[in-house]
Structure formats: C-alpha cells, structure tokens
Specification:
Two copies of one chain form a homodimer. Chain A has nine helices and no strands. The first copy, chain A, is an all-alpha fold and 173 residues long. Chain A has two domains: 58 residues, Homeodomain-like (Arc Repressor Mutant, subunit A, Orthogonal Bundle); 102 residues, no CATH class. The longest helix of chain A is centred in the middle third of the chain and has 24 residues. The structure holds a DNA duplex (30 and 30 nucleotides).
Amino acid sequence: MTEKQENILKSALKLFAQEGYASTSTSRVAKSAGVSEGLIFRHFKNKEGLLEAVLQMSMEAAKMHMADIVMTTDPKELIGKILELPFKIKEEEYEMWQLTYALKWQTDSYDTSSQEPLKLALRNAFEKLGYQNPAAEAELIYMFIDGAATSILLHPPEHKSEILNALKAKYQL
Amino acid sequence: MTEKQENILKSALKLFAQEGYASTSTSRVAKSAGVSEGLIFRHFKNKEGLLEAVLQMSMEAAKMHMADIVMTTDPKELIGKILELPFKIKEEEYEMWQLTYALKWQTDSYDTSSQEPLKLALRNAFEKLGYQNPAAEAELIYMFIDGAATSILLHPPEHKSEILNALKAKYQL
DNA sequence: TACATTTGTAAGTGATTACTCACTATTGTG
DNA sequence: CACAATAGTGAGTAATCACTTACAAATGTA
C-alpha cells in the first residue's frame, strides 16, 4: 500500500461521507488526494471498487468491537455494552459510519448478514434473563441502536449520558 | 395540476426513492413519466425544484398525522400513539419515507425544525407522568422511532406487533 | 372568432461523467 | 547492472448530465 493509494482511500472516504457516493466524481477524489485520476482506476479498477476498498478499510476496526461484544457471557453486561455502542462512536469514526448509514438507502448495497451474530447474542442474553419474547427484545434493541447512531451522527445531542441512563433503566442496568 | 405534471411527480418520487436523488437523471424521470425532458424544467425550474415539489406533495399526509398526535392531551395515550407511528406506515407511503430518510444523509438538506413540536409534546407528557428526566426520555423515544422506521422501511420484520408490545411494556402501556 | 396564456416538444448546448490508453518513472530482484 | 514488474501520469474517449431555446399544440377568455 503506497502513500498515494492511502491518500486516495482517505479522500474518497471523506468525500463519499460528506457529499454522497453518487455525487462524488472520481476526478474530485483524485484532486483531493493529489494524484492523477488514472491512478484510481489502476489501483481500484473502477469507482465501485474504490467504494468497496474504502468500506473494507473502514470496517476493520468495527469488526474488532463486535467480536469483543459477542464474546461477553454475562447477559446484563452484554446488553449494556450493546446499548452503549452508538454513544461511544469516536469522532474519527464519524465519516465511516456516516457513509455506511447513508449507503443503507442505496437499495443494492444493503446487507444484513453482519448483524446476525449480534442479534443472536442478544436473543440468548434475553433468554437467560427470562424475558417473555427474547427475539422481539433483540429486534427492539437493534432498532434502537440504529436510531441512536443516526441521531448522534447527524446532530450529536448534548446530554448523551442522560439519554443512555434513561435507556439503561429500561433494562434495569 | 395537469396529468403530465402528476406523472412527473409520481415517477420522480419512485425513482428518487429507489435509485437515489443524485443517481436519477432528469431524462430518466421524463422517460418514466412519458413526457419530454423539457417539461420538467418548464414546470419545476430545475432538478432541485422537482425534488422540493416531490417532498412537498409527499409531506402533506404526514403533517396531518403529526397534528393529530400533538393535540392528544392524555400523556400515556400520546406516548402510545408516537410509539406506534413507525409500525403503522402504509405500503403506499414507503417511497416517500425512504426518500426522506435517505436525504437525511445529504448534508445540506437536513432540517430538524419539523421534529420540535413532537419533541415538546413528548417532554410534556413525560413531565406529567413524573419521569425523572423528561427531556432525555423524549430524545430517547425520538431516537427509537427513527431506528424503527429505518428498520421497517429497509427490511420489514415479521413480528411487528410483538416488537411493538415489548416496546410499549417499557412504558407500562 | 380572435388572441393571449399555458402546456408541451424536439433538438440542441457546453460541461462533466467514468473510464482507457500510450507512455514514463520508480522499484524490486537475479 | 539488467530487466521485469509495478506505480504513476496526462491526454484522450464516448456517453451522459442538467438545462436552454425555438417553436407548435392546446386551452382559457373576451
């Protein structure tokens, strides 16, 4: 991975997240990265290949988080960790999450398979705690962290910790 | 409002929602509506004007819903109605909601002002019910309905009613 | 009927799009 | 050093973009 290649990925992430994938031209990416436009196609084949490379790079860190959470055995601890997830997104991760959330609505790119392990772990946790409908509770939490992440990414609320506390209270945490 | 004008709006809504605003060309809209491309610019000035007209048309119904909810005086009834909101989106309203949710991520188009009356009503309701932190509770619910709507619009879950019940239980409804 | 206004079309416009190609510069390896 | 592979450039390409313009058809109104 050369320096110019990294610059392309960084610029692409920034522009795709800020302006949208479709509205960002490869020439804009090249200019922002300080390289010739042809280099993008040499390294990433086409615009879609560039997007995939950007997503792959961005998702490395996220996968580590997930793996850690899924390993948690204590059900209350697991639920707590998942609820905290959207409230602990770091500033430097904003762009990648903005991009992935925006792409959800691009019909062809949506893929739910990465959510499954987390949902399964959640369902097990609620089962252990004797909840009446563990599957529904898991879906519910998943819906919530989606909404919370959206809200935080678009207009970070001032009282995050109070909101998180109100939320945790609903699960006696 | 002529028939061709209506066709343009319908086609634009459909295509903007399915393919995205930036990736949908005015010529595609014209073809889909069965009109000449020039007519779009005659009636709506430019592509952005077309988008605004589409959104305005789509939002008429939504505003009626909101108005009804904000008038509700009983706090528990109000909270219940708001929680039900995303679960009661009609099939024929999917496209407009998909479009508005997708546009959220287009930085320049995001506007939170329409959310304020609802948030205020929610805060009052939680105050009446003696919740410790009504503002945080209102934010929390707002985050949730956002996530629920997203989830339902992208991949409608099978057990909506069970999820809604699990949710209502958290507020003793 | 007369005529102004609105609705609609077809064929353009220059700019920008994703992408290619012929070429040079740099680097790794025997 | 030799020389192949890789990295990088700059000037192309045809297609498509949002939008305009000149003109015709339909409609409202006196």
